[in-house]
Amino acid sequence: MFNWGVDIGIDLGTASVLVCVKGRGIVLNEPSVVAIDRASGEIIAVGQEARSMLGRTPGSIVAVRPLREGVIADYDTTERMLRYFISKACNSGLFLRPRAIICIPSGVTGVEERAVREAALQAGARQAYLIEEPLAAALGAGLDISQASGNMVVDIGGGTTDIAVLSLGGIVISRSLRVGGDKFDDAIVRYIRREYNLMLGERTAEGLKIEIGTVFPYGERATATAQIRGRDLVSGLPKTVTISAEETHQAMREPVEAVVVAVKEVLERTPPELSADIVDKGIVMTGGGSLLHGLDVLLSHETGLPVHVAENPIACVVMGTGKALSMLGVLHTSGARVSSSRR
Fold first, then answer.
1. Least confident range of 77-81, 212-216, 329-333
2. Rounded to an integer, what distance in angstroms lies between the CA atom of residue 181 and that of residue 172?
3. Cα(249)–Cα(210) distance, integer angstroms
4. CA nearest to 286, candidates 131, 144, 137, 151
5. Which of 102, 110, 218, 282 has the greatest number of beta carbons closer than 10 A?
6. Residue 268: is it exposed, middle or buried by C-beta count within 10 angstroms (0-12/13-18/19+)?
7. pLDDT confidence band for 340 (50 / 70 / 90)
8. DSSP code of 222?
9. CB-count exposure of residue 244 (10 Å: 0-12, 13-18, 19+)
């Protein structure tokens, strides 16, 4: 017998998937990684267990990330991953058919929208709603977007950065770019390869970014250093080098500059009345990328506006989906881009 009363919100991110269940809060937070047997196509592991296999699998097993730059790159694997996460989040031996609301970047195409919706339905959702990430992030950050007042959100995820000005429950101006935490990691990998002839794995680059990475060196972080290990491209042997925080600043300059330029573009296109509100309230940053050291200070320095990082930036989007489930009627009335399909 199906339980038709389950409502879930899903932040289907490039780096991780978070799921909240109405009335229970966030019940799942796992990496968007799937380990697959090459020969049989069978799934070996999903989530955290699969992530630990990245770069460490034998030839018979491949660990893949089925989402790239905020959209589905491998439909079949995404569907199977979603089915696993939905089943795990519902926490029951019975196969449930929940109503689901899923986040999408504000710049996705119609084809990409349909892919996400169909993947959710195929994975077991009886009804699938889509909501744009900046809208969900604003709700999750506790912003009151229902009033005729401007709020600006910069949501930096693993694959995309979504920038939006919101008012009266909807998005007034938005910009989505395919730059996020993954691009920051890639920039570090390229810098280390160019400067030290050292090949790093993506997990090592991410760890370096978290440990000493900065885009606006100040305080203790400005003089921080860390040792990293990789493969020497000349000798082919393992090698250890010491990297400084200032070098990570140099490495990530290009993708960070793209984010800053996009924020300025959105501000330039914002209606004057809403601009006045943003001057008073400032910019709210959400997403895991907002935790990158110095990024809030850099944005404030470049725009001249106060910049605040949300209280729980990583969970803002999924918490916003939970709130959106209880206010779908309001969002539809406001003209917000919330679409649905059912089966």
1. 329-333
2. 26
3. 12
4. 137
5. 102
6. exposed
7. low
8. G
9. middle
* Dihedral sign from CA coordinates of 288, 135, 69, 196: negative
**Which one, of 157, 164, 159, 114, lies nearest residue 135 by Cα?**
164
Maximum C-alpha span of the chain = 63
Exposure of 320 in the CB half-sphere (CA atoms within 13 A): 35
Outline where DSSP puts E strands in the chain: 7-12, 16-21, 25-31, 34-37, 43-46, 61-64, 67-68, 71-72, 99-104, 127-132, 151-156, 161-167, 170-177, 198-199, 225-232, 238-244, 283-286, 307-309, 338-342
Mean model confidence pLDDT for the chain: 89
CA separation for the pair 116, 196 (Å, rounded):
40
51-85 pLDDT per residue, tens: 888 777 787 888 889 998 888 889 999 999 999 99
The full set of domains in the chain, from first to last, is: 7-135+318-342 (3.30.420.40), 143-179+255-314 (3.30.420.40), 181-253 (3.90.640.10)
Q: Which residue has the tokens 């995309």?
A: 160
β-bridge mates for residue 29, sequence order: 18
CA 139 to chain centre: 16
Whether residue 332 is predicted with pLDDT greater than 60 in this model: the reply is no
Distance CA 191, CA 188 (A): 5
Q: pLDDT tens digits, residue range 133-179?
A: 999 999 999 999 889 999 999 999 999 999 999 999 889 999 999 99
